[in-house]
Fold this protein.
Amino acid sequence: MIETTNNTLTDPYGRKIEYVRLSVTDQCDLRCFYCMPKGFKDYTEPENWLRFDEIERVINAFSELGTKRVRITGGEPLVRKNLPELVSRLNQITGIKDLSLSTNATRLSKHADALQIAGISRINVSLDTLQADKFKRITGGKLDKVMNGIMTAKRVGFHPIKINMVAMRGINDDEIEDMVAFCLEHDFTLRFIETMPMGNTGLEATNNYLDLKLVKQQIAESYELIPGTMPGGGPARYSQVAGTNLRIGFITPISQHFCETCNRVRLAVDGTLYMCLGQEDKFELRPLLRKGISDDELKQAIQYAITLKPERHEFNENPSQIIRFMSLTGG
Ligand code: SAM
Ligand code: SF4
């Protein structure tokens, strides 16, 4: 174990790490084809899931090292039982100022209230299409459940609600303007994401790759776009539709990577810290936690892990390199 003195996390490239994506499960009730293959069941065994008290310890250690923001993700985070209880425990960690959730919304109508009471401040929902038959083809699930979930979150008062649409050539590029209209109508923020080649879904994702420059051009033909901003600290570059509150974010890991400003690491459900979505560098915390390391040793382990953070992903140079799925790493 290395000796460290200072209580912050800075990686070898001078980037301050202050954001944790926390995957609470690698399971999901949908099967978006670009994320998880149909029939995939090779999940982490429950005895290898970090327990809530272990997650709390790790996030507490991160917060003492300067992390202020945590996004809960997965897999589908709402598949993990008693999630609001975990949220409420994390919400009590003094240093954590922003607790957000990424969800597919299938179970949101049931849990939105409890999540808000527990301390979730912001919600991102994946929604690639507004057409039920297409939704079924992309995800294997039912659109009406998701719509119920989104509308419940709106009614409960979550704001902003960000809609994440993975933009795919030949799949949903005919719905760009419908999605803009939908988000305008409901006062949602809209974000487009480029497909990344992950796991053995990688090839399919690459086949449907769509450069978001084209999406932006398409929107600009119907709407006046002006520069926009949005709190959150993620990698999206925002525009705003003039004369409205609608902000549209473009997340371009492939056409314009944002590695030089990367401020995050990902904690998987089994306690592995992944340093980059597009590289294999990782550090396993679970064996140390279960061996009974002290809080100081835990902080030192995290500081050591951050020294492993690579400079950038290599999705373009080496698209078949990453064999784990997005659902495992915590997207
Ligand atoms: N299940 C939740 C959801 O769908 O929002 C949270 C986890 S999901 C892995 C997080 C995000 O990763 C989603 O917005 C999803 O669209 C995105 N994602 C998954 N696989 C991807 C891929 N190959 N390329 C780009 N984005 C991907
Ligand atoms: Fe599940 Fe989210 Fe992956 Fe879709 S993107 S399969 S909803 S984890």
Observations:
- The radius of gyration is 19 Å.
- DSSP finds eleven helices and twelve strands in the chain.
- The first strand starts at residue 19 and ends at 23.
